[in-house]
Amino acid sequence: MSDMKENLELLSRSLYRLPVAELTDEQLHAVVARAVLARLQPAWQGSLQAHCAGRRAYYFSAEYLLGKAVYNNLLCTGLTGEYSLVLLLEGDSKVPTEGNIQYIDQMSVEGGKVTFTLKPKALTEGTYNVYISTTDKPLDKVASFQYGTKPPYTPGDVNCDGDIDVFDVSALLGYLAKKRTLTADGLLAADVASPKGEIDVFDVSRILQYLVGKGKFE
C-alpha cells in the first residue's frame, strides 16, 4: 500500500504542486482517479479482452425497495374482486392484532389495480410486512422491510476487521483488480460513493478522502 501512497503524493505534486493533505476535494478526486486507473489498467485491459472474446448475457431487473418512505406508494396490479384490503403488520405474524397493526385500509379495485398511501402509525426497530387481500383472494404477503436496524457492516470497513484504514483501500483495489474476493458485508461496506449500487474507483476515492479527513460517509 506504501507504493500507492507514494504515487498519490507524486501525482499531487506534479499536477497541483501541493501535498495530498492540502488538496481540495476536486483535486483529490482527480489525483486518486489517475492513480487508481494506472494501477488497474493491466488487469482492466485483460478483463476487457476476455469479456469481448466470449458470449455475453444481459440482465434487466426492476425492483421496488421499501424503507423509511414506505408510506409514499403501494401500487397493486392484476387484482380481481370488488374490494382490496391492505395491512402493514409489525413482526412475522400474519394474524392482525391491536399490537401489531401499523396501517389498515380498504379500497375499491378498478381495472385490476388499486393504489394505497401507506402511513404507518409509529415505526420502531424491527421487521414489517405488507399484506394484500381482495374479495376473491385471501391475505397474501407482498412486501417486507427492516426499519431502524443497524446494518451488520460499517461503511468503509471493506475487510470487516472493525477499523477503516489503508488495508480497506488495499482490499477494495484488490477486488477491483480481480485479485481477491469480498464478503457480502464487505461489498456493502465498500459501496460508499454516490450513486449507490456500483463498486468502482469512486468508492476508493471516497475512502481515501475519509482517511485524510476530507469527508465522511453518509
Helical residue percent band: 25-40%
Strand count, sense and barrel status of the largest sheet are:
4 strands, antiparallel
- Mean pLDDT, to the nearest integer, reads 80
The CA-CA distance between the termini, in Å, is 26 Å
Structural class estimated from helices and strands: alpha+beta
Apparent shape: elongated
Summarize this structure briefly.
The chain is of the alpha+beta class. Helix content is 33%, strand content 18%. It contains five helices and six strands.
Provide the fold topology.
Blueprint: H1 2-16, H2 25-53, E1 74-76, E2 83-90, E3 101-108, E4 114-116, E5 126-134, E6 140-147, H3 166-176, H4 184-190, H5 201-211
Helix pairs in contact: 1-2, 2-5, 3-5
